[in-house]
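Entry for the shared binder. Reason: the reviewer on the internal report wants the predicted structure included alongside the sequence.
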Amino acid sequence: MHSKASLVFWLTLALYLLTLFTVTYVGVYLTYIALPLLVISGLIMKCTKPKPEVQKVYDESKSAATQTLVGASNFLDGVTEGLSEFNRNLEIRNKIHDLVRERTKAYKTKVQSLKIERIPFEMKLTHTELDSEKRNLQDEVERIDREIELNNKHIEQIKIACELEVRAP
């Protein structure tokens, strides 16, 4: 209350004096408004002036609030720094992922086509009864599995190379 009354008092006084000294004709209405406002706000300011002990407690609480805000600001700075690092790591992962996806597209397509190619052999293998035919079908499935494994190894090598490429300075 004291600070608001003080603001009203000093602002009104400054505007009133400024008007009196700069304007050639000042009507009585300005005085009718300004003087009671000055008197009332001055009395409120005088009556609500805090005691020195209360002012000391008030200043200490301001200091504690300031320290709390400084601590919160430091905490938020740490959070911001952590989020920035997290964002950089995500950017690196995205670059690696994009490179891997681009460079392994042919190998993944080949693996998919090999898996599709293997399906008929597996179906025939489960339904055939001749041992020689089973052996031939089993050999064909194993050949396809080896090709799939080889392509998967190439994909893994490409992943490692992409990660090294992106993470290298």
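Summary line for the report: The two ends are 61 Å apart (CA to CA).
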